[in-house]
Design a protein that fits this description.
alpha/beta, Rossmann fold, seven-stranded mixed beta sheet, transferase, methyltransferase, Methyltransferase domain-containing protein
């Protein structure tokens, strides 16, 4: 796993082979961040990374200058891996929450400029996530929500839909 740009550009982290989660590919990550840059300046932004997995997106957000990133991951081993990565970077710009993303959404009262969610593609509640996130009022005015999902899902009819991007088998839907 590699940080693509920013203050930690080029830093690599070896993901244990035992992990179920895989980071968003470098190709897909680089391209979606190029798209995001056209809509939002991440420098000084508050960001939320739901279903953080390996922490790849959280680390990228920190590197790109987010003031604070809240990273939510339920799996104990994955959360420990993210914590180790943050220690190696010697940063306190990330608040790691080891817990269920759905429970976090129910209790969250903070607003974020940028929200990223990459749930397991097989998650049965996956189609409900955009409404859960956008219905909570946690996306700040002018903020962007990026949702990573499998190709079988189409959110283009959603009232807050912005655009859809596909990079190989990785699909992103952007909401405002």
């Amino acid at each position: 796993m590699r940080i693509i740009t920013g203050i930690y550009k080029g830093r690599r982290f070896d993901i244990p082979r035992t992990f179920k989660a895989r980071p968003t590919t470098d190709f897909a990550k680089e391209n979606i961040f190029n798209v995001i840059q056209g809509y939002l300046d991440l420098d000084g932004a508050l960001a939320l990374d739901l279903f953080a997995g390996t922490g790849s997106i959280s680390l990228e957000l920190i590197s790109r200058g987010c003031r604070q990133v809240v990273s939510v991951e339920a799996d104990r081993d994955h959360a420990n891996f993210i914590r180790q990565c943050l220690q190696k970077l010697d940063t306190d710009a990330c608040n790691l929450v080891r817990g269920d993303s759905f429970r976090f959404l129910k209790s969250c009262r903070q607003q974020f400029d940028f929200i990223f969610a990459d749930p397991p593609y097989a998650l049965k509640e996956l189609p409900e996530i955009p409404d859960l996130v956008l219905g909570k009022g946690i996306l700040a005015e002018g903020g962007i929500f990026v949702f990573e999902h499998g190709k079988q899902y189409d959110f283009s009819d959603h009232p807050r839909f912005m655009e859809h991007r596909s990079y190989g088998s990785v699909n992103f839907t952007l909401f405002r």
